[in-house]
From TrEMBL, chain A:
GO cellular component, one term: endomembrane system
InterPro entries recorded: Adaptor_comp_med_subunit (IPR050431), AP2_Mu_C_sf (IPR036168), AP_mu_sigma_su (IPR022775), Clathrin_mu (IPR001392), Clathrin_mu_CS (IPR018240), Longin-like_dom_sf (IPR011012), MHD (IPR028565)
Gene3D superfamilies linked: 3.30.450.60, Mu homology domain, subdomain B
One GO process term, biological-process aspect: intracellular protein transport
Protein name, UniProt field: AP-1 complex subunit mu-1
Superkingdom classification of source: Eukaryota
UniProtKB/TrEMBL annotation, chain B:
Function: Adaptins are components of the adaptor complexes which link clathrin to receptors in coated vesicles. Clathrin-associated protein complexes are believed to interact with the cytoplasmic tails of membrane proteins, leading to their selection and concentration.
Biased composition regions of type Polar residues, renumbered to the chain: 638-649
GO CC entries: endomembrane system; membrane coat
Protein localization: Endomembrane system
UniProt record, GO biological process: intracellular protein transport; vesicle-mediated transport
Family classification: Belongs to the adaptor complexes large subunit family.
Organism: Staphylotrichum longicolle
One GO molecular-function entry: clathrin binding
Clathrin/coatomer adaptor adaptin-like N-terminal domain segment(s): 56-564
SUPFAM superfamilies for this protein: ARM repeat
Name of this chain's protein: AP complex subunit beta
Span list, region Disordered: 621-675
Basic and acidic residues bias locations: 659-668
Length: 483, 736
């Protein structure tokens, strides 16, 4: 429950505010810039987005997560409405923003926050609403995320699996912690109110149903679903069934704690020459099967903020210096399994520092040891990041076994044609590793970042499998239009 | 005075009926206005624009543009716009939703400034509430109920009654919140009417969104009223859970919050309900997840079967960990709540210490809270891993964080006895870096280690003495001085070292002066020949040249003691010190119980009892029922076994390094801590003497303990004492 919501510029000046309860003087917001500058740790109930602060005030012991998420939702919805949410977009859209705020929150309680639904009755081009707008049924319906009567001539579903790997490697190369964060994203362009069912190689599901599988099953430590998924059903028999929202959304995210080998391993040796020059030697090795290839590999190595005159040498790909992110970026279009590539980089350092100051951390924070000079803030111990995509391959081994679509209501069924495309997305992860702080000139870096990719799936086009089925669930007859 | 004119302006208009007003203005040629400057000019200009267009303006385009300008002015706090009130009321009847919305917005904004004009809008709103379009009905109702003007409130009541039974759920939902708004405006009027009963009746609505809204409204009213009791029996609770899946994410949050008012009468009920809401833990909305965690934790209080409890604990762990992958704000909230949950149900996160290892790009407030959790979860098994991690933190760039990491290492030496050697080695390794703030921080914690393990690690004194020059913070200086005094007999040149410190006696803060005084006395007692010159000098300074009563009194006391009976002085000053422990800060059971009923709320961010943050909050307590399991808050074993003086977690008396400011409700402890530790064992001696005399000394400046029967468990939740102000600079984190 929030008493009031504010949009403020970076100086803390209010651009727009909405008072929902009137129990707090609106002048209370004047304290905000003061708090901001003084109390760095008490960041509460506000979020920053572009050049705006979104702030909620409350007088009660409110559910904090609810308000924070609501502020994020505002960002999401406004971004959909105005393309980008920034100070200017607030100024240009006062009226519609008030309308939205009125609809999204009542008496401090979040209400409808689905932008697709809001767009049905709150629009900027009100002339479109010659007939007076009515509240969409979805506003109060059990299916609050999808409108009725959606029609597409071409019905399509796209499915992406995007995974990133978080590795924490100790100084001696042991993996302290490895965590895979994955998400299944969908783009759904389907007519009517389709019922979808998604099958994964979920170990718990196989166990509960007593089914066996040829392939590997994975054990997800935690799963989070979009609100469209029937959670009780998942709890009961691990079936993922849902009526999807229209368009793009994240169906689920999951987390696994499994020991995995980084698919691309990077070793980095840093050599500093009397503080005026710094040299990096990188070795990257692809630790996956020879028949696979990683595409668009990017290895991002943090370097001191003030480095200049870069020189690079490599036997593959291209290297460039990205001063805006204080890093050098090594790009390799295709990286075959089992291959190993080398790269050397040399950069000048304008300000002379003693060698022993370069102990600050493995791959970043060279600017000065222990915190004094040179590497304030973001320079600290940044890890090397590796980004890449490998088609048909996920780190976790998750597979989409099937996606079944049924349209419960009659006639539209005939029109429903399903095409599912797979698309791939790469992702990066960052990890950091504790490396003892040696006052040595040479640091061996075992710092990695991994990311993985996706392994999408199978689709049915009118009952026919377009792509290879990983392990199709054929015990059920294809139904309805897909038969 | 532009504003004064503006005000006069509006008063004048208010007396003229709006219709005449607008006509009148419509005939004034614009040229008359253009030379006018200032607010009146602008108001007149906008008024003219609003009323131009006439019949040709079929789509009200001109009006819309004028209204948009008015809204923009209003947004930029141009309160002169209030002068346009009558014109706006005139526009309200235009059958166009966009115009209506803008007029209503204006009305909500300015009604309280001009109640006399605003009441003219009532008939319009009443009329709109009979509109065939539910959107218009709801809009009018929502607008009307936002206005805190008596006429509006009174006019709303009969309409709400009617609209609570509107055929459209969207209107019923709006009406449900409306009752809560009316209650906010006029408590007594609502209590006298049957509105609350009617709202209650809405709980039987067949639309889940309406039910959730009614619950939110009822909870809102309940929160503010002692007269109202919210009773939810198992049947109701069960129905609420049944509609959960059909509610929006926010609706689910409201229902889950309302479930906190259900008091299970049987263990079976509680277990079943917990089981049924557990699927919500997989919701992508973190608010739903955290609220669900709150309810499950609550229901666990009414479950007797340990197997069920541990099964539920296992379910809570993964979602909590997953929250750590969210944005920093949610992450921080989750971490603060993890601190709580860990105290109440240690099983939940028992094996997850690695998930709290900091990431290089975590914001500092996240890192600090993670550090606290790492400290809490550290044990003999994982200590090596933890120390490796802490060593990493101690070389970070953020000074504040580094200090806390160093302090944590020292505290771990005290907390985990078998690992003390390893902790100390790591500290020495860090001291060798010669970075001043690390050295100072290490000095402070090593002093505590000496107290905990007397006669074990004195060999490192030599190393400490190498870094004397880098000490410039009072706390570190005081710690070093304590070490010199305590081990005066073993440090070859202790008199010379002390003399160096004494050189600047007059300029030192009182904390260091006290330490110097005591150390000098100790030196004298242990090595009379070396101390005999220093003691009279220091006693003289401390009695004659100071304004500080503490320092003076203590000096007199020593003086008298030394001159009366040197043997007694020795026994007292060099007496055996009570041991210390480093158990982490824990909330007292009552606070912990209350906090656990508020998981995910703002109070958990501060980790303070709700009433201290929100004075008007309704207190929550576990309601008694046959199923209620008497709470056994897991107490740290060390706290029980050697219930002795414990240091606050990492920040006892800690200057900048005060570890967890938010848990520090007991500033008196801090103040004491500072002094107590700085001043040394003589103080401890006094406090134990006083204890012997049965003096319960809450917040005594010497003892720094909460006066628990047998020991010195420093309880941060001890009643706040007057010594709050004595805490020198160690609460700067506390600002809220």
């Amino acid at each position: 429950m929030a008493s009031a919501v504010f949009f403020l510029d970076l100086k803390g000046k209010t651009s727009l505010a909405r008072n929902y309860r009137g129990d707090i003087p609106m002048s209370a917001v004047e304290m905000f810039p003061v708090l901001l500058s003084e109390a760095e740790e008490e960041f509460y109930l506000y979020i920053r987005h572009n050049n705006l602060y979104l702030l909620a005030l409350t007088k009660r012991n409110t559910n904090a997560a609810e308000i924070l998420l609501f502020l994020h939702k505002i960002v999401e919805v406004f971004t959909e409405y105005f393309k980008a949410l920034e100070e200017e977009s607030i100024r240009d859209n006062f009226v519609i923003i008030y309308e939205l705020l009125d609809e999204m929150m009542d008496f401090g309680y979040p209400q409808t926050t689905e932008s697709k639904i809001l767009q049905e009755y709150i629009t900027q081009e009100s002339h479109k609403l010659e007939i007076q707008a009515r509240p969409p049924i979805a506003v109060t319906n059990a299916v609050s995320w999808r409108s009725e009567g959606i029609r597409y001539r071409k019905n399509e579903v796209f499915l992406d699996v995007i995974e990133s790997l978080n590795l924490l490697v100790s100084a001696n190369g042991n993996v302290l912690r490895s965590e895979i964060l994955g998400a299944i994203k969908m783009k759904c362009y389907l007519s009517g109110m389709p019922e979808l069912r998604l099958g994964l190689n979920d170990k718990v599901m196989f166990e509960t149903t007593g089914r066996t599988t040829r392939g590997k099953a994975i054990e997800m430590e935690d799963v989070k679903f979009h609100q469209c998924v029937r959670l009780s059903r998942f709890e009961n028999d691990r079936t993922i069934s849902f009526i999807p929202p229209d368009g793009e959304f994240e169906l689920m995210s999951y987390r696994l704690n499994t020991q995995v080998k980084p698919l691309i391993w990077v070793e980095c040796v840093v050599e500093s020459h009397s503080g005026s020059r710094i040299e990096y030697m990188l070795k990257a090795r692809a630790q996956f099967k020879r028949r696979s290839t990683a595409n668009n590999v990017e290895i991002i190595v943090p370097v001191p903020d003030d480095a200049d005159t870069p020189r690079f040498r490599t036997n593959v790909g291209s290297v460039h210096y990205a001063p805006e992110q204080s890093a050098i970026v090594w790009k390799i279009k295709q990286f075959g399994g089992g291959k190993e590539f080398l790269m050397r980089a040399e950069l000048g350092l304008p300000s002379v520092r003693g060698d022993d100051e370069h102990g600050g951390g493995m791959t970043g924070g060279f600017g000065g040891s222990m915190g004094g000079i040179g590497a304030p803030g973001k320079g600290a111990k940044r890890p090397i990041q590796v980004k890449f995509e490998i088609p048909y391959f996920t780190t976790s081994g998750i597979q989409v076994r099937y996606l079944k679509i049924t349209e419960p209501k009659g006639p539209q069924n005939d029109l429903l044609r399903l095409k599912v495309y797979m698309s791939e997305g790469g992702h990066d992860i960052e990890k950091r590793s504790p490396v003892p702080n040696k006052n040595a000139v040479v640091l061996k870096v075992t710092e990695h970042l991994y990311a993985l990719l996706d392994r999408p799936v199978i689709l049915f086009v009118v009952g026919q499998v377009v792509h290879q089925v990983v392990s199709a669930d054929l015990d059920e007859e294809p139904t309805g239009a897909f038969a | 005075m532009a504003s004064a004119q503006g005000g006069g302006d509006s008063k004048l208009f208010a007396r003229i009926p709006s219709a005449i007003m607008s006509m009148f203005l419509a005939y004034i040629p614009p040229s008359v206005h253009s030379p006018m400057r200032g607010p009146q000019g602008k108001v007149a200009e906008l008024r003219f624009e609003l009323n131009s267009g006439g019949k040709k303006d079929k789509h009200y385009t001109t009006k819309k543009i004028a209204l948009k300008k008015i809204v923009a002015n209003m947004t930029m706090s141009n309160n002169d716009m209030v002068a346009l009130f009558p014109d706006i009321v005139g526009c309200m009847t235009i059958p166009n939703l966009e115009i209506k919305k803008m007029c209503f917005l204006f009305l909500v904004n300015y009604a309280r400034m001009r109640p006399d004009v605003s009441v003219k809008a009532i008939p319009v709103l009443q009329h709109d509430m009979e509109d065939p379009n539910p959107l218009v009905r709801a809009l009018a109702l929502r607008t009307m109920s936002y206005i805190h003007v008596r006429e509006f409130v009174e006019a709303t009541v009969p309409i709400v009654k009617h609209l609570l039974r509107d055929p459209d759920p969207y209107v019923r939902k709006t009406a449900a919140y409306c009752v809560a708004k009316l209650y906010d405006h006029d408590k007594h009027m609502v209590e006298k009417s049957d509105l609350i009963d009617r709202l209650n009746g809405l709980l039987r609505d067949d639309n889940p969104t309406v039910v959730a809204s009614a619950l939110a409204g009822l909870m809102d009213i309940w929160e503010r009223s002692d007269a109202i009791k919210l009773t939810i029996d198992y049947g109701n609770a069960s129905k609420m859970v049944a509609i959960l899946p059909d509610c929006s994410e926010w609706g689910q949050t409201y229902i889950l919050e309302a479930l906190m008012s259900y008091v299970p009468q049987e263990c079976g009920e509680a277990a079943l309900l917990a089981e049924r809401i557990a699927p919500r833990l997989s919701h992508s909305n973190s608010a739903v997840v955290l609220t669900c965690i709150r309810v499950v934790l609550y229901l666990m209080n009414y479950i007797s079967d340990q197997k069920q409890i541990s099964a539920l604990c296992r379910k809570l762990s993964p979602p909590l960990v997953t929250l750590l992958a969210k944005g920093p704000e949610v992450q921080y909230l989750a971490l603060r709540n993890a601190l709580l949950i860990l105290q109440r149900r240690p099983d939940v996160l028992r094996n997850d210490i690695r998930v709290f290892f900091c990431k290089y790009n975590d914001p500092i407030y996240v890192k600090v809270t993670k550090l606290e959790l790492i400290f809490m979860l550290a044990n003999e098994k994982n200590i090596d891993e933890v120390l490796t991690e802490l060593r990493e933190y101690a070389t970070e760039i953020d000074v504040h964080f580094v200090r806390k990491a160093v302090r944590a290492i020292g505290k771990l030496a005290i907390k985990i006895e078998p690992a003390s050697r390893r902790c100390i080695n790591l500290l020495l390794e860090l001291v060798a870096t010669k970075v001043t703030y690390i050295v100072q921080e290490a000095t402070v914690v090593i002093r505590n280690i000496f107290r905990k393990y007397p006669n074990q690690y004195e060999s490192i004194i030599g190393t400490l003495c190498e870094h004397l020059d880098s000490l410039d913070e009072p706390e570190a200086k005081a710690a070093m001085v304590w070490v010199i005094g305590q081990y005066a007999s073993r440090i070859e040149n202790s008199d010379a070292l002390l003399e160096d410190f004494l050189f600047s006696f007059a300029e030192e803060p009182v904390e260091v002066q006290l330490a110097l005084l005591t150390a000098t006395v100790k030196l004298f007692i242990q090595r009379p020949t070396k101390g005999q010159e220093l003691v009279p000098k220091v006693l003289k300074w401390a009695t004659e040249e100071t304004d500080n009563p503490d320092l003076r009194d203590r000096a007199y006391m020593y003086w008298r003691l030394l001159s009366t009976d040197i043997e007694a002085a020795k026994r007292i000053v060099m007496g055996e010190k009570p041991a210390i422990t480093a158990e982490s800060e824990r909330l007292d059971p009552a606070t912990l119980e209350e906090m656990c009923l508020n998981v995910g709320t703002l109070a958990t961010v501060y980790l303070k009892p709700v009433q201290t943050v929100f004075r008007n909050a309704r207190p929550r307590r576990l309601q008694d029922s046959p199923a209620l399991q008497r709470q056994e808050v897991p107490a740290p074993s060390s706290l029980r076994s050697d219930a002795n003086k414990s240091l606050s977690q990492l920040g006892m008396g800690g200057q900048a390094a005060d570890f967890d400011p938010r848990t520090d409700r007991g500033q008196p402890r801090d103040g004491n801590g500072n002094l107590a530790q700085a001043v040394s064992d003589a103080d401890a001696y006094f406090s134990s003497q006083m204890r012997g005399m049965q003096i319960q000394e809450h917040g005594d400046s010497f003892g720094g303990n909460a006066g628990e029967g047998q020991g010195y468990v420093v309880n941060q939740y001890a009643p706040q004492g007057v010594y709050q102000t004595a805490a020198v600079g160690n609460n700067q984190d506390l600002l809220l």
